[in-house]
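Ticket closed. Logging final result for VWA domain-containing protein.
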Amino acid sequence: MQESTIIYIILSGIIALLLALFQYIYKSKSKSNSHKFLTFLRFVTLFAIMLLLINPKFEQTTYYNEKPTLVVAIDNSESVRYLNQNNNTNELIERLKANDSLNENFNLEFYTFGKILAKTDSLSYSDRQSNMALAFDRLSEIYSNSVAPTLLITDGNQTYGNDYEFSTNKYKQPIYPIILGDTTQFIDLKIQQLNVNKYAYLKNRFPIEAILVYSGEGSVSTTFNITSGNTVVYSQNINFTATSTSKVINLTLPANRAGVSSYKAEIVPIENEKNTVNNIKNFAVEVIDQKTNVAIVSDILHPDIGALKKSIESNEQRQAILVTPEEFVSNAGDYQLAIVYQPNMKFKQAFDEINRLKINKWVIAGTKTSWNALNALQSNYKQTITNQTEDFLPELNLNYTPFIIENVSFDEFPPLRSEYGETEFNLPIQTICYKTVNGIAIGEPLLATFEINETREALLNGEGIWKWRAQSFLEQKSFEPFDNFIGKMVQYLSSKQRRTRLNVEYESFYNGNEDLKINAQYFNKNYEFDTSGNLNITLKDKEANNSRTLPFVLKNNGYQVDLSGIPAGEYSFTVSVTGENVSQSGELKILDYNVEQQFLNADVAKLERLAASTKGNSFFIDNTSSLVKTLTSDTRFATLQKSSKNVVPLIDWKYLLAVIVLSLTAEWFIRKYNGLI
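Final structure:
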């Protein structure tokens, strides 16, 4: 409490006492006991009221002990079971939970990780991928401001995401790897990596690159084969020695048949080889007989153009070509879609040719757009011309139905810049994103699509979409979500197909370790998205000739079914709607590949480097006797005594109000009783 406050309290007490004495002693000229008691009551009342006006603050300090957190992150992937370390892991976890010394010095928190990080100690060792980099990213967010040494119980074999050895540079906690495995080396041949394009074009040849690795001391000879069905389409003899332990094979194969072609790459096992699963990799190539050509028509250079080209060509079925309006006119018939970037009057012939050939188009407007020209070149919409620019943030329309939009964080995207003014459409539109200014939605479309005269069009009223692609990478560590969104835009706009009540999105083939999810959209007879539909998928195994039926679940503006975990093979399927004569059929192939079974040993060297770089220690699962002592004796993890200071103003003390009420009440009754009122 400050000195000035104490002085005010003393002065208040003196003033309250003088006023009470003046009223009941000096003024009444009486010194009876009742007058003395009334003086006391009046003093209490006045002093309490003055205290409330001064409102002094009282500090209350409490002390408590804060133990550090011991984070136990456990690998829940299939490779742990494959290396026969699941029982050892379970026993170690039980010992950690029951250890009194650890529980006395730490707060134990258990997490499991595979493809995601989850706070649980329930282990199934069934995750089909392991992403340790993501686990460290999430843990760094949770324990950024606390002491939390981390026990990492894993074999160190990562199958997905960024390299965890370098991702831990941002992780500020010591890491103690518990290595599930040993340093025993076995003779092993494996296909370390197989690089092949997902798509090829009919009558062309597609490249394949195979990286073969040998672990052993002697010299061995073997054969590398690629087969399609029962036919060997490529074969090569391979020799390895103790000093020459890797080979890179480059070859090309012909694409003679449209559709999905399956292949098996195999390096023939040698004698006494323990793990032969990693000698084989299945792959598939979808052969297509045409390519979607997209023209980006522009007479200026802008980063948006490069971002669009990268996103479009991330799918090998599509090609984006940058052309001027004059170049487009001379070759307009070669394109299925025209992206018209910031048009002006120079685009008149290009618009005429687009309209003549009924080519679908996507107009992107911005600060260099001449709206006088654009308003004149087409009649579907008109913008009020203000000659002023504004930044517009996107707000996703969850009710958009022409195609499914997912995994794109529009609310995190930076604004796009365009001319300020209302855009009026002369036909029905479907809005993907609305404009917001300073957090206020203005109800105008930022990105919209529409259909007219058997053509499809879109308008993006803002430049700077390259920032969206960059932000997508910053948020999700990948361009893929944004590129997929642009790909769906291009697929929708370049298609001439009539609209159907049931749309199903799926791939022709999937790798065995991928999540297999099929999305669908169902519309009522007015082509409005129907959330009450009962969709089912009937999946038939072509080889086993058995089938299963699974329901779709409603998710955002679509339906989804998760088929992850079904056995590898070729399947036909039919998606149907209960009570409606609406269905769609297709075929898909699941390749036999389990990435978690490709490892023969724990990655000991990497885990030891990880421990050294984070100032921790590594232990093998069968030698953890000194683990508890190492943790409890480390002075970095000592229990800290902390204090909490709580400042309470007197006005919050409700009892003081009760004292004022009681003193006034008692004073009134005494005066009434003595005839002083």
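The chain has a mean pLDDT of 87. No further action required.
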